[in-house]
Design brief:
Strand content: under 5%
Distance between the termini: 34 Å
Largest sheet: 2 strands, antiparallel
Structural class: mainly alpha
Mean pLDDT: 84
Helix content: 55-70%
Low-confidence stretches: 2-12
Radius of gyration: 22 Å
Oligomer: single chain
Order of helices and strands: HEEHHHHH
Strand order of the largest sheet: 1-2
Number of helices: 6
């Protein structure tokens, strides 16, 4: 039995949330089995949360004033770099899915730019109160939700106004070759 399992070769790659990956999907954990756009929408919010949590840990460790001093901000800087890499594949897949509409593509690009700006704004600003900081870093969720809801409306409109391309017809030779 073990020989048969080895002879069968490796199991095919599994797709989870639009991404090939393990059983647990780190990038878009709430979009398993859904289209690329849904994975990207989930990733925008999830990966922002990941870096927001890392920044919160730095603030707890070092305090607001010293959270960006020297190497104190290394964890959040690494998180930002890592999440930019992690979101790249879902973003590209979403753009590919949206290529049927220029408006949809532009809205995705705008959401991505908003996400990048929000990620870079996780730093505490000198003189900012605790409440002001927490309110400011929580606000992007509302912006993400509004932007995502708008994109979903455009998707519905695009799907209603476009018809799928007809399947290519096989010529006589191709049909005969398929029957062999």
């Amino acid at each position: 039995i073990a020989v048969a399992a080895l002879a069968a070769g490796p199991a095919p790659a599994q797709t989870i949330g639009g991404n090939p990956g393990p059983q647990y999907n780190y990038i878009c954990p709430h979009a398993d089995g859904q289209p690329a756009l849904e994975c990207y929408f989930d990733a925008v919010q999830h990966l922002y949360t990941m870096c927001r949590n890392v920044k919160s840990i730095e603030i707890i460790e070092f305090g607001y004033e010293k959270s960006a001093d020297g190497t104190n901000a290394a964890k959040s800087e690494y998180c930002l770099d890592k999440q930019k890499q992690n979101i790249a594949r879902p973003y590209q897949a979403a753009l590919k899915e949206a290529k049927k509409s220029k408006s949809l593509t532009e809205r995705l690009q705008s959401l991505h730019e908003m996400w990048l700006a929000a990620m870079s704004e996780l730093k505490w600003k000198s003189g900012e109160s605790d409440d002001a900081y927490k309110t400011r870093v929580a606000h992007p969720y509302d912006d993400f939700k509004d932007r995502i809801d708008g994109i979903k409306k455009v998707v519905i409109i695009v799907e209603q106004k476009t018809t799928p391309a007809p399947a290519p017809k096989k010529d006589g030779r191709a049909a005969a070759k398929d029957k062999r």
